[in-house]
Design goal:
With about 425 residues, this protein is an alpha/beta fold. It has helices at about 5-10, 10-35, 35-45, 65-70, 105-120, 140-150, 165-170, 180-195, 215-225, 340-345, 385-405, and strands at about 85-90, 100, 130, 155, 175-180, 205-210, 230-235, 240-250, 255, 260-265, 280-285, 300-305, 305, 320, 325, 330-335, 335-340, 355-365, 365-375, 410, 425-430. The protein is globular. Bound molecules: adenosine-5'-diphosphate and zinc ion. Zinc ion (ZN) binds near residues 256 and 315.
């Protein structure tokens, strides 16, 4: 189901007009109400009047996570506190929290955005939407919750953790849709497999909305098979509101961005210039409707590309390709760029391995070391190293050829890698960077 055809399927020329109108308003607000933006624009010699079309967006200054931290907590706010209705803060994947504040309109627009994604799974009255994203300052829980409410669905606010109870309620309450991180969904699927009382085939689960971290096609297939669902990717970030900046449609071929609210660009992270259409680079967003904290050209650090072709689903909204990773999650191992998600993608090619992994990077004798813990599935595991060899060798060869580095692979017994209830932590980088450069 398409929740808001007028916006999601708007002819592109019309969308550009709407974006132009909204950008002009946003820039004016930023300049007049947020001293940070006035300073930045004055320094660049840009006045709000210089912005007359959406194409002028490239004249505007960027905003980074560092700016948000420097202006902590409310320096980027464009409205008085009396107009603020909620405060969230990011989960801090990369350090100190980043604050997001919302007016009532901002909260309504956010719910609308999430509703557009949930509508892809035909969510409506009678559906039980189990929200197993963490509730709290993290935007995942309340974001998904409000989206489900907007569609008239039944909200089941389980939050994350307590997995046994989660799957019991899932069965007893007839959950039809699950919202959580893909890594937690995987953990719940494993709990169901192990459970004596809960069986996947007894569940009414039909669809899952998974996001807040990158995940691969391998994990998607695994979740769809184990939970008997369609797994839909939902993307978002606190700086733009939270989950629901975009989401996949039923064709699972890129994440539609709700462009009437967020304008996406892809830039070269080194030169900061826009890349050619369709090329890979860093995703940048400008908010077009936000009142409490409008944001110009926010550098997400997410590496991906934009797909402009019209989608089979009928939506004209531009799509972002799979997120390759975050530039700040990228590991440089002996000079080679490595993304943890590459490991996940490779692991899921091997049926004997579970998709769980943990990377430890260190530096010994001036050489980077890369240790990879993986698990064999119970039916393939043997504590005897000789019996593990036939599994390790092909995995090792594939890791070397795809990633260009030689990992030390360690096979652990099933279920020994720490499972996550929120965003999974896959890496421990023990190298001391303090005396670099
Ligand atoms: P933090 O920066 O602390 O992680 P957020 O919760 O705001 O705070 O996280 C936003 C980031 O999470 C995005 O910039 C992106 O890197 C990641 N993310 C969110 N949804 C997805 C998704 N569906 N696929 C890949 N990455 C995602
Ligand atoms: Zn589509």
């Amino acid at each position: 189901m398409i929740h808001n055809p007028a916006m999601e399927c708007m002819p592109r020329e019309e969308m550009r007009k709407l974006q132009t109108e909204r950008l002009i308003k946003t820039v004016k607000t930023c300049y007049e109400k947020v001293p940070f933006y006035k300073r930045k624009m004055d320094k660049m010699g840009i006045k709000p009047e210089d912005i007359t079309s959406i194409d002028d967006i490239t004249k505007l200054p960027f905003t980074t996570k560092y700016d948000l931290r420097d202006e902590y907590p409310f320096g980027l706010q464009a409205v008085p506190m009396s107009e603020v209705r909620r405060i969230h803060a990011s989960s801090g994947t990369t350090g100190k929290p980043v604050v997001g504040t919302y007016t009532q309109n901002d909260l309504d627009n956010w719910a609308e955005c999430v509703a557009r994604v949930l509508a892809v799974g035909d969510i409506g009255p009678g559906d039980v939407v189990q929200v197993s994203y963490g509730y709290g300052l993290f935007t995942g829980g309340l974001g998904a919750h409000d989206g489900a409410a907007k569609l008239g669905a039944i909200q089941l606010p389980t939050s994350s953790g307590n997995s046994e109870k989660q799957i019991m309620l899932m069965q007893d309450f007839g959950t039809t849709a699950l919202c959580c991180t893909p890594s937690y969904a995987l953990h719940l699927a494993e709990c169901i497999e192990k459970s004596d009382t809960v069986k996947a085939e007894n569940l009414k689960l039909r669809v899952g909305f998974f996001g807040a971290e990158p995940w691969t096609w391998g994990i998607r297939r695994e979740l769809e098979k184990k939970l008997h669902i369609k797994a839909i990717d939902i993307y978002g970030l606190t700086e733009m509101s939270g989950p629901g900046v975009g989401g996949e449609c039923q064709y699972q071929d890129g994440t539609h961005v709700w462009e009437d609210m967020f304008y996406p660009e892809i830039i070269n992270p080194e030169t900061l210039e826009p890349v050619a259409p369709g090329e890979q680079g860093e995703l940048v967003f400008t908010s077009l409707c936000k009142e409490a904290m409008p944001i110009l050209r926010y550098r997400t650090r997410d590496l991906t590309h934009l797909i402009y072709e019209k989608c089979r689903c009928g939506r004209t909204a531009v799509r972002i390709g799979k997120i390759l990773g975050r530039s700040d999650d990228m590991l440089i191992i002996r000079g080679v760029n490595v993304f943890p998600s590459q490991v996940e993608a490779i692991l899921t090619e091997f049926p004997a391995f579970s998709p769980q992994y943990f990377i430890t990077v260190d530096r010994k004798n001036h050489e980077d070391t890369f240790d990879l813990d993986v698990e064999l599935r119970p039916e393939f595991f043997s504590p005897n190293p000789a019996k593990q060899m036939p599994f390790i060798k092909p995995l090792y060869d594939r890791l070397c050829s795809v990633m260009g580095i030689k990992p030390n692979v360690h096979i652990l017994p099933p279920n020994s890698i720490q499972r996550s209830t929120g965003k999974a932590k896959h890496v421990n980088d023990k190298r001391d960077f303090s005396n670099w450069r």
